[in-house]
């Protein structure tokens, strides 16, 4: 194996979305500092971006400052910007799998995934996972992983992810919440350099249940679990009413907020910092980041997509890799 710095591998995501464009712009912004390679069909990249097709990932570090190294996958039909194309589903999935394979062989430092269109993958390939997070957990054989969205303003963790709201109360159990807290605390130490992370925990119900008047989960098991884990040494605060835990003074009191469901976590961070939010999967045996946005079909192919979140995702992946000796 080469002794050159390991690149960040970027999977292409849905070709008709903004993924190829923001990856290319992120390469242009970071190429002199961070080696990277892109896995996808080079025909889907913007025409003004220099790229070079490589066959050996170990070539990426030397080429990356001058041209975006591409591990070429032939997707067949051309991309149609702004449209989901189920016929590309197998290629999109294979690009993610190839990225993981490079992490396993040590030929990439981290994986940064561009957005997939979940329905296109289901329609085109019977994709059995709600998103990357669950797919990567399956590829890694990880029992439990955690989604975190991180920005300079806020870090949030949805304890349940891509499930219908009506399924949330049953999916939340003391065992599940305990694992989410443990994984979050471990990876805040490992990747974010926080020796004693302060974690806030939202209630499930309005007003965190208002002493049982608006729901009982807080009284019955969330508060007891928090007390027990505090006794074990975790720095936890909660259950907190979710509507008052994201204003600036409240945010100053914690390093990450664990929320009970997807929108409780993602609405505050996307409102505060959509441009710099990064999606990180915690609990994996490798590093994975992603921009916080989706395929944005409404602006795809128009050179209007803001690459900031992708830039931050690559930067954070590189930083995490450096902290853990993988870069
Ligand atoms: N990590 C991933 O693979 C993710 C995939 N998705 C998928 O993306 C698809 C579309 O999801 P939506 O809910 O519509 O969210 P979206 O993030 O694609 O778009 C929401 C709005 O934000 C705008 N926007 C998004 N990114 C932007 C950027 N970089 N620059 C400027 N404007 C931007 C869009 O134009 C749109 O108006 C869905 O299939 C969803 O599942 C969504 C989030 C993450
Ligand atoms: N809403 C966040 C999202 O959909 C990202 O999911 P994933 O593909 O990173 O699992």
Write a concise keyword list for the protein shown above.
37% helix, binds the ligand NCC(=O)COP(=O)(O)O, Isopropylmalate Dehydrogenase, 327 residues, globular, alpha/beta, binds 1,4-dihydronicotinamide adenine dinucleotide
Q: Could you explain how this protein is built, in words?
A:
By secondary structure, the protein is α/β, with parallel strands linked by helices. It has two domains: 186 residues, Isopropylmalate Dehydrogenase; 138 residues, Isopropylmalate Dehydrogenase (3-Layer(aba) Sandwich), CATH 3.40.718. It has eleven helices and twelve strands. Strands 3-4-2-1-5-12-11-6-7-10-8-9 form a twelve-stranded mixed β-sheet, sandwiched between helices. Helix 1 crosses helix 11 and helix 3 crosses helix 4. The two termini are 14 Å apart. The mean pLDDT is 96. The ligand NCC(=O)COP(=O)(O)O binds next to helix 5. Its cofactor is Zn(2+); Mg(2+); Co(2+). Keywords: Cobalt, Cytoplasm, Magnesium, Metal-binding, NAD, NADP, Oxidoreductase, Pyridoxine biosynthesis, Zinc. Catalyzes the NAD(P)-dependent oxidation of 4-(phosphooxy)-L-threonine (HTP) into 2-amino-3-oxo-4-(phosphooxy)butyric acid which spontaneously decarboxylates to form 3-amino-2-oxopropyl phosphate (AHAP).
Entry summary:
The chain has eleven helices and twelve strands. It is of the alpha/beta class. Strand 8, helix 8 and strand 9 form a beta-alpha-beta unit.
């Amino acid at each position: 194996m080469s002794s050159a710095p390991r690149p960040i591998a970027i999977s292409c995501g849905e070709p008709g979305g903004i993924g190829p464009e923001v990856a290319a712009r992120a390469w242009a912004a970071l190429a002199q500092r961070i080696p990277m390679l892109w896995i996808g069909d080079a025909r889907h990249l913007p025409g003004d971006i220099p790229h070079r097709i490589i066959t050996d990932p170990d070539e990426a570090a030397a080429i990356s400052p001058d041209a975006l190294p591409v591990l070429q996958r032939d997707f067949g039909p051309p991309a149609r910007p702004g449209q989901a194309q189920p016929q590309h589903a197998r290629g999109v999935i294979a690009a993610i799998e190839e990225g993981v394979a490079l992490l396993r062989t040590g030929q990439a430092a981290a994986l940064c995934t561009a957005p997939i269109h979940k329905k296109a993958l289901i329609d085109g390939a019977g994709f059995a996972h709600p998103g990357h997070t669950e797919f990567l957990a399956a590829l890694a054989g990880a029992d439990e992983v955690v989604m975190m969205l991180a920005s300079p303003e806020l870090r949030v963790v949805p304890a349940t992810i891509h499930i219908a709201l009506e399924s949330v109360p049953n999916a939340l159990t003391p065992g599940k919440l305990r694992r989410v807290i443990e994984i979050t605390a471990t990876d805040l130490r490992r990747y974010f350099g926080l020796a004693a992370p302060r974690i806030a925990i939202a209630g499930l119900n309005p007003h965190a249940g208002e002493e049982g008047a608006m729901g009982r989960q807080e009284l019955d098991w969330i508060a007891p679990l928090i007390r027990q884990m505090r006794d074990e040494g975790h720095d936890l605060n909660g259950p907190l009413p979710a509507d008052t835990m994201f204003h600036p003074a409240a945010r100053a009191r914690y390093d990450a907020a664990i929320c009970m469901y997807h929108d409780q976590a993602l609405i505050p961070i996307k409102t505060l910092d959509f441009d710099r939010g990064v999606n990180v999967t915690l609990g994996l045996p490798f590093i994975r980041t992603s921009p916080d946005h989706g395929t944005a079909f409404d602006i795809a192919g128009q050179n209007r997509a803001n690459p900031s979140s992708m830039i931050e995702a690559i930067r954070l992946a590189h930083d995490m890799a450096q902290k853990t000796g993988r870069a």
